[in-house]
Amino acid sequence: MKRKGPATKNQKYLAILLVVIMIFSVFVIFFANSLKTGSNEDSSTKAVDDKSSTIPFSQIPGKHVHHQFNSIVDGLNMSPEGVMTAIYIDLLKSKGTPLGTLFKNKDLKYFYGADVTRCYRANYANGSGFELNQIPEQKILMPWGLVPYHGYNLLLKTNNTYNLWNVVGNPVISGSLQSVKDVIDIMEKNKTSTHEYDQILSQAEPEDVILEEVATKNNVTNISAEQYYMDLKKLDNGSYIQTFMLLNPEPKVTKNIVALKASSSERGVTYNVTNSGNIIKLKMSSDFASLNNETKLLSL
Hints:
Blueprint: H1 6-14, H2 18-24, H3 26-30, E1 54-56, E2 65-66, H4 72-76, E3 83-90, H5 91-94, H6 106-112, E4 118-124, E5 129-134, E6 139-141, E7 145-149, E8 152-156, E9 165-167, E10 169-170, E11 172-175, H7 177-187, H8 198-201, E12 211-216, E13 225-234, E14 240-249, H9 251-262, E15 270-276, E16 279-286, H10 288-298
Parallel strand pairs: 2-10
Antiparallel strand pairs: 1-6, 3-4, 3-12, 4-5, 5-11, 7-8, 8-9, 9-11, 12-13, 13-14, 14-16, 15-16
């Protein structure tokens, strides 16, 4: 039987991450329930290659966003309460990894008219959500209009086809008019940011992450713990380390981790399991394909 090549093998194991990536896609906002129905063709994306179609941040009047944006914690600090799931991706760190083949910047560049280096998305149980994106070039596609709010200018993304708005700065905020206003209210200290994940994130080590994700159990996420955290890093030797943290996990999860750890060396995976109160922290290190296979076996 013909043996599968490395590229085919990586594609197979990348499948487990597709759902994570899909919820992050900018087009989730574009066709979210909060947006108006209309043509799928956004005329503002047609002129991305025309430099005159973009405007520097410096030419947009009013306040700009200035907020630390290096981890999922930074994104959550800008998020209204009730976050169901959130994901943070460092697109620069994903380059040269199997994830780099999926985290392509093309769609985001067509959306903004500039390259994006770091991204965050928060999702809520009512179907709403918003995104944060770091744009080093400090420019954006020319807006169709603007609405002032607490000194910021909310930029209309389309010609009234969709309820989609941006606020420029570091990072750029994208979402429906109400979701963008809610983020600004947090920055202006008129509302409180989410604190649902403070306990589990107190044990996170976000330095050099490629990807971070958090989720709360409900009938949508259906995870096997009250809360879930995951991150992925690439080590200097070319291998990867993946961390899972589970708040109040189901008993079957603990049993499964113990069983898989006992035989992990047979699969070329190193386990490091610690318990802190009601949180289980699992670190696994191996090559990329082996880690993704192990994640399937864990069924978290």
